[in-house]
Design brief:
Length: about 300
């Protein structure tokens, strides 16, 4: 089924009418996108509020589920952990007889992922402001470019809250926390690593020991270990790997992971996902009217 114009007009006139209609549609869409950008601004401001340092903060339980290995809590305010009280019972961590090893946080710990998320959201807000107040709001190529930039910032912020393996599991050996941030100070054989994964706070605890030298592998101690005459260490995914931690080559004896869902981070991640979808819909609509080919995300 096809549409026809009546009374009939010449082909050149038909082309001119189609172009004029498309121009009016583009003008209408650019005007409506200003309202859409205002709604994006509101959503981004809500995300900033969820990440803002507001007292009393979020108190999150960090405890192992089926053992007494880790029991405690931390308090997050904005991008920092300002309070923590954790007790450990790890087979490879020396502690007083019939007692746990205490970790009392006395100095704030920064969460770099949340700092990155906040910066990306602020950059997204700048993009919206430029699109609304500074740039040419009637220029389709300009608004298209701004929407592309806005989508990149929001997508990266959401992905940062989701957490990449690089940030969640590791490079823990490169930037160890200050042992003096705890009272008593963090043992030299214990690594304390906080990160964000799926909008949850994740704590990795590792006990480490000096990596064996070639002569150590031939010692009677090593031989007894290989023959199973000494207690086996807990298995984990970093067994046998060597890391340079605090200037010394070490191996991980025991690795424990605990996590706690953070309601504020979950809400921020959900809002960012919705904003990302909204920006993609706006980009697709503008691209269709401009006659651009749809980009693959």
């Amino acid at each position: 089924m096809s549409a026809a114009v009546w009374p009939q007009i010449s082909h050149d006139d038909l082309i001119r009418e189609e172009e004029a209609s498309l121009a009016r549609e583009l003008e209408w869409l650019l005007n409506s996108l200003q309202e859409t950008l205002a709604s994006f601004r509101s959503g981004l401001e809500e995300c900033i509020a969820l990440l803002a340092p507001q007292e009393p903060g979020s108190t999150l339980v960090l405890s192992s589920l089926r053992s007494e290995s880790v029991k405690g809590f931390v308090t997050r305010v904005g991008t920092r952990i300002i309070k923590g009280d954790i007790h450990l019972r790890l087979p490879t961590l020396p502690s007083p007889r019939n007692s746990s090893h205490p970790l009392h946080l006395t100095s704030p710990l920064l969460l770099p992922q949340l700092t990155t998320v906040r910066n990306l959201i602020n950059q997204a807000l700048d993009v919206v402001d430029v699109s609304t107040w500074t740039g040419d709001a009637r220029s389709a190529p300009f608004i298209s470019g701004q929407l592309r930039l806005l989508n990149e910032n929001i997508a990266e912020a959401r992905q940062t809250l989701k957490g990449e393996e690089e940030a969640v599991g590791g490079r823990w050996w490169e930037e160890p926390v200050d042992e003096k941030a705890f009272d008593p100070p963090l043992p030299a054989t214990l690594s304390f690593h906080l990160s964000i994964s799926e909008a949850a706070l994740v704590l990795h605890l590792r006990t480490v020991s000096p990596a064996p030298s070639e002569s150590d592998t031939l010692s009677s101690f090593s031989l007894r270990t290989r023959l199973g005459l000494l207690p086996a260490l807990p298995s984990h995914d970093e067994t046998g790997q060597t890391f340079v931690y605090r200037g010394q080559e070490v191996r991980v004896k025991e690795k424990v992971r605990v996590e706690s869902q953070d309601p504020s981070l979950m809400a921020a991640m959900a809002k960012l996902s919705a904003l990302e979808h909204g920006v993609r819909v706006s980009r697709r609509a503008l691209g269709i009217v401009m006659g651009e080919e749809e980009e693959e995300d």
